[in-house]
Each structure stands twice: as structure tokens, then as C-alpha cells.
Design goal:
The chain has 254 residues and is of the alpha/beta class. The protein has 5 helices and 15 strands. 40% of the residues are buried.
């Protein structure tokens, strides 16, 4: 875990585990950890090997929760779901979750999209969402924040961290995608032939600021997954199966 990307915004909370994995020899993740993506027994064995390697970085009390991500904007309330397995993969067509329960590690798998995690220390609620351009357009971060507020969180106390993701330097989209975000001119740069460069991290930041979160409480990773493909999986650079994990969990201190 020491070689993974850690989110400094949570550094004052020793009970919070939050960051993103990286490509490394001891944790290769040559393909997704998600069971629904595998095609044969060999891949299944490798998935469980990767999962076991991942679990070693955390207290044994943690249960890991992952999703079958569908590029939507549904955010689950895990306080209403009974979880029994050490690693629960929720096939509920959702792209985010929140919880006030301790010892749950929320995980988002990406390879260019954004993993966005949140923590409100007074209400002790955490959240995580998968935000590509579709989820961003559908305001998935707003849905996460709304659920957190329903648990007693206050906007001024919510801390946000965004994982490495593809940035405006590398994320070329056509006019049909770009026009969905013309309201965010700082996140777009027009090129020739009706092509644009898009920055979904900046768009999500603007959404959060409009919701009333404090700018000082929002941390965006400086790393572009396409530029930093040696460290992070990038779908556009050829990582069709590989994913890295962005995670957040609240450990119950005794």
C-alpha cells in the first residue's frame, strides 16, 4: 500500500483508508477484479489472487464492497443492505455507494474514468462513485452528496478526493459529447474538425462547488491516466481489461 497513491486530504484521520492502487509487480491486475468480467477458470483464479493481494493492505476486519458499474448515476445506501461476504460484488446496476457503517471498504474500478471518494467526519459517513462523462453528465456526485446529507452530513464538512483519471491534455471527444458540457468552458478546449478536449475532473469540481462544498475541501489527483500509463491503467492506451482501484474505508478504532 505504501506505493499506492494516498489522498492527503484525509491525512488528519488515521481511521480513514483512502487512495488508488497502481500498476506494480506484486499487484499486477492484468485485468479487472470484477468477477462479472471474467471468461474462464484461469481468469477466475487470477481475480481471486489479486483480491487476496489487495486485502493484505487493510485491517482484517474490513469487508470490501464493489459494484457492477454501468456508467449511470445510481448511488446505493449500504446501511440498508445486508452484506455477508468478505468481498461483496453488488450486481445492482449502480455506480456509487455511501455508508455510515465502519469497516466497509468501498471500491471503484477505473481505467480513465474518475473514482471520487468522500468523507464527512462529524456524521461519520463515507461515499464513493464512478464518474465517466456519462455519470458526470447525470450528476452522480450530486446524488452521492444528497445521500450523505440525508445521513446528517454538512456540506461545509465534506472532504472530496478524485483519483487519477484521463484529463483535458489527452481526452478527445466529439461534438456530441462536448455539447453536454458547454456550461463548463474551463473544462473544454476546442480543436479542429469539431473535436474537443474534455476534463471531467474539473466538471465534477464545479458541480461540487455549486452544491456548496468548499474548494479547500476538494483534492484532485494531478495524474492523467493516459499520460501516466506506466502507473495507472488507461483504456485509451490499450488497457481493455486492466483496472486500478480507488478506495475509501472507515476503520472502527478501539
Amino acid at each position: 500500500m505504501k506505493n499506492w497513491a494516498q489522498f492527503d486530504i484525509f491525512r488528519n484521520f488515521p481511521n480513514i483508508y483512502a487512495g488508488s492502487t497502481k500498476k506494480e509487480s506484486s499487484f499486477p491486475l492484468n485485468f479487472s477484479l470484477a468477477l462479472h468480467t471474467i471468461h474462464n477458470e484461469e481468469e477466475k483464479k487470477a481475480v481471486f489472487k489479486n483480491r487476496n493481494q489487495f486485502l493484505k493492505a487493510f485491517p482484517k476486519e474490513f469487508q470490501v464492497i464493489s459494484l457492477v458499474q454501468v456508467h449511470g448515476n445510481k448511488v446505493l445506501d449500504l446501511d440498508k443492505i445486508t452484506l455477508k461476504e468478505k468481498w461483496s460484488e453488488l450486481a445492482l446496476n449502480a455506480d456509487g455507494f455511501i455508508t455510515t457503517k465502519p469497516n466497509l471498504l468501498l471500491t471503484i474500478l477505473t481505467a480513465d474514468c474518475g473514482g471520487i471518494v468522500a468523507y464527512e467526519p462529524k456524521a461519520e459517513v463515507i461515499g464513493a462513485v464512478h464518474a465517466g462523462w456519462r455519470g458526470t453528465k447525470k450528476l452522480i456526485v450530486k446524488n452521492m452528496i444528497d445521500l450523505m446529507l440525508s445521513k446528517g452530513a454538512k456540506k461545509e464538512n465534506i472532504l472530496i478526493a478524485m483519483s487519477p483519471m484521463i484529463r483535458k491534455c489527452c481526452y478527445e471527444v466529439d461534438i456530441e459529447v462536448a455539447k453536454e458540457f458547454f456550461a463548463y468552458p474551463k473544462a473544454l478546449k476546442e480543436k479542429l474538425n469539431q473535436k474537443f478536449m474534455l476534463d471531467i475532473a474539473l466538471i465534477n469540481k464545479e458541480i461540487l462547488l455549486k452544491l456548496g462544498l468548499k474548494e479547500k475541501n476538494i483534492q484532485i489527483s494531478p495524474h492523467c491516466t493516459s499520460c501516466c500509463n506506466k502507473s495507472y491503467f488507461s483504456y485509451r492506451k490499450g488497457d481493455k481489461k486492466g483496472r486500478f482501484i480507488t478506495f475509501i474505508g472507515r476503520y472502527e478504532l478501539t
